Amino acid sequence: MIQSLEKKLSIAEFLQLPETKPATEYIDGRSYQKPMPQGKHSQLQGQLVTAINEVAAKQKTALALPELRCTFDNRSIVADIAIFSWDHIPLDQEGDIADRFNTAPDWVIEILSPDQNQSRVTANILHCLQSNCQMGWLIDPKIKSILVYPRGQQPEFFQEPDQLLPIPDFVPNLRLTVGDLFSLLKPGNI
């Protein structure tokens, strides 16, 4: 029987460690480094943040942020895209956006990278949902699919290009189909 000699960290100890690239997350007393994003991941992440903010930030209903560390309920994750409804955006004493986000996002989007552990990513989405997140998306660029996790409901699988993707209520004017989302992988379709 092989036992792990790795010492478990407290969340306070983890948060004192220097940031890494790619980011390291804190889950159940251990740190896990995320894989380095590759082309499809980076393209989808950048274009989705822009598409969401084009609608939501302009209307002051939500704000999408890439690679944001969110520390809550004894876990510290770095979501590919963390979306906060406008009235839940953490602010500092001057009314500027805060540096530290000690709350779950209202909508979390994760994009699988090659060799990324899908179970760990799914566990992070489920943890967010248990902490009042309204919706999670798990995008798989390899098979061009999206698993949508609405809070309190069964996950839904989307892969057909004409399927309209569920969007949280606080982003009422955003409409994306599966085809729209994956068309962002083609540089000419930006």
Total E-strand runs: 8
What is the element string, with H for helices and E for strands? Answer: HEEHEEEHEEEH
The chain-level mean pLDDT equals 92
| Total discrete domains | 1
Annotation field: number of helices: 4
Write the CATH homologous superfamily.
tt1808, chain A
Provide the CATH topology. Answer: tt1808, chain A
The CATH architecture can be named as: Alpha-Beta Complex
Strand order of the largest sheet: 3-4-5-6-7-8
Ends distance = 53 Å
Unreliable parts: 1-5
Main sheet attributes: strand count, strand direction, barrel closure = 6 strands, mixed
Strand content: 25-35%
What share of residues is helical? 10-25%
What is the approximate shape?
Answer: globular
Cα radius of gyration in angstroms: 17 Å
| Sheet/helix structural class | alpha+beta
Write a brief caption for the model.
The chain is of the alpha+beta class and 190 residues long.
Keywords:
190 residues, alpha+beta, tt1808, chain A, 6-stranded mixed beta sheet, two-stranded antiparallel sheet, 22% helix, disordered N terminus
Account of the protein in words:
With 190 residues, this protein is an alpha+beta fold. It has a single domain, classed as tt1808, chain A (Alpha-Beta Complex). It has 4 helices and 8 strands, in the order αββαβββαβββα. The strands form 2 sheets. A 6-stranded mixed beta sheet has the order 3-4-5-6-7-8, sandwiched between helices. A two-stranded antiparallel ribbon has the order 1-2. The protein starts with 10 loop residues before the first helix and ends in a 7-residue tail after the last helix. The N terminus is likely disordered.
